[in-house]
Every structure is written in structure tokens, then in C-alpha cells.
Amino acid sequence: MKLGRNDPCWCGSGQKYKKCHEFFDEKLAEFRNRGVLVPDHSLIKTKEQIEGIRKSGLVNRTVLDYVAEHICVGMSTEEIDRLVYEKTTELGGIPAPLNFEGYPKSVCTSINDQVCHGIPSSDIILKDGDIVNVDCSTILNGYFSDSSRMFCLGHVSEENRRLVEVTRESIAVGLKEVKPWKCMGDMGAAIHEFAMAHGYSVVREIGGHGVGLEFHEEPFVSYVSRRGEEMLMVPGMVFTIEPMINMGSQEVFLDEADGWGVYTEDGKPSAQWEVTVLVTEDGYEILAD
User: Fold this and answer.
1) CB hemisphere CA count around 94 (13 angstroms)
2) Sheet with strand 262-264: strands edge to edge
3) Per-residue pLDDT tens digits for 132-184
4) How many other C-beta atoms lie within 10 A of the C-beta of residue 168?
5) Which residues, listed in sequence order, are joined to residue 264 by a DSSP beta bridge?
6) CB atoms within 10 A of CB 8
7) Residue 279 CA to chain centroid, in angstroms?
8) How far apart are CA 265 and CA 172, in angstroms?
9) Which of 130, 150, 114 is nearest to 270 (CA)?
10) Coil/strand/helix, residue 99
């Protein structure tokens, strides 16, 4: 239903539509008429929702800081899962992965050639030289946040350490392209070009996603996209930037034994960092890292 200019705005601000989102909607319509994929109102977070996601992100960041203080050679990935569960619940949150679509643990721990979604286990012991991704997601008062970090354990080879650092730098490269009224493809292309320039490949099948009111929302966020393509980024959108960068081929496969773990096809290492980002009126804000 079309709103009148003096009607309450659809965003719930309590302001009249003409003083709140009328110009915003007119601008969206201009891009839509040019054939650009634009978000619908359900993907635009209100101030109240953004604050809720921000608080969730603070818990998520604190949990990853806690993991960083304790992770070490010789511990099991099951112990990491316990740390995440205990710290998240201590802070009033719920680990979002736990029981999500049947996932059995509170966090994902992916080692070396495992790209993502590694299931913690008491049988998996961290070894000297491992590179490990810890992917943590939090629900706080109904709001979701999501971020991950890489950890280099002990005497990591220079080759593997470089992969981890370049992947981290790729997040900063992508963030430079996060601006309102630009396309997500600009961000994805920048990350892809950066990774390729360093001799790496980027996983195509798995990417980022909208987040905040649900664990996984639209849109799918690609890091092998083209400039000027994909969904338009507008103020109020919240999504993850989480490129998975491989030392070798981009090809991956799913572990059919557990139905979750994804590995590189050629057995070479993979790295991933992840942040939750809000598009603002003049750029972005990182809500979880």
C-alpha cells in the first residue's frame, strides 16, 4: 500500500513519511527503474534493531577475544566449543550455530585445508603449525551477529602465515567499497582482484549473507562478483563480509560423512576472516569482528 506523505513512516520511527523515508524510497525507485537489484524494506534495519545487533556484536567480539586468550597447541576443538558456549551464555547470549539446521555445536572450527563449518570434537587436537578459523555467532535478545578470526598456532610456515594475513587485509580492501548507493559487486570484485593479485583463489559457492533479525538473511554476498552488479547497498542494511581464500584452486567439496565440513579439493590451506557490517549514510560501521 502506497503511503501518504503525512502517514507514519514504514520504518517505525514515528515520523511522518515525508520527513523520514520518502526521499529514500524515491531514490530506490530510480535505481530499480535502471535495472539495479534493490533491497526491499524488510532488509532495512531500524535504529532500534541496529542497536540490538550492535549489542549482540559486542558479545560476539568479547567471545572471540576470550578464545584468543585461551587457544593453544594441544587443546581440542571441543574445548574451544566449551569456551564459546560458556562465555556467550555468561554474557546473556545464545550461540546461534547450536542446533541451527541440525548443527550440533556452538561454534565452527576449521583447520588448514578445511574451508568452513568444521564441527568441534574432542578427537581433533590443535597442532603446532596449524592455522585455525573460529567462526562465532551470537543471539542476544533476539538479535544476531556473526564474525570469525584466524589463529596461527606455534611455528606456522611463512607461506601459511602470508595466506592468513592477505585474507585479513582483503576485508579492509572490501570495506573501502562499502558505501551507500553503490553495488555489492564493487566490494566483491575488489576482494577478488586483491586475492588474485597475491596468487590466491576465492571460493565461489559459499559467501556472506544478510544478518541481524535472522542468522542468515538475504542477500547472498559474493566475493567473485563484478563491479556495478549484485544488490545495491543502502543505509540500514546489515550483512557479513567473509571471503574464503584458498592457497590453491577455488574448488571445494563437502564432507559427506558429517554433512557440514567443507574442504579444498586440492588439500591446500584456506583462510577466512569475517565481520558484520552496517551500511551508514556516509560509509559503514563494523558491528562484529
Assistant:
1) 12
2) 114-116, 262-264, 252-254
3) 999 999 999 999 999 999 999 999 999 999 999 999 999 999 999 999 999 99
4) 15
5) 252
6) 14
7) 14
8) 27
9) 114
10) coil
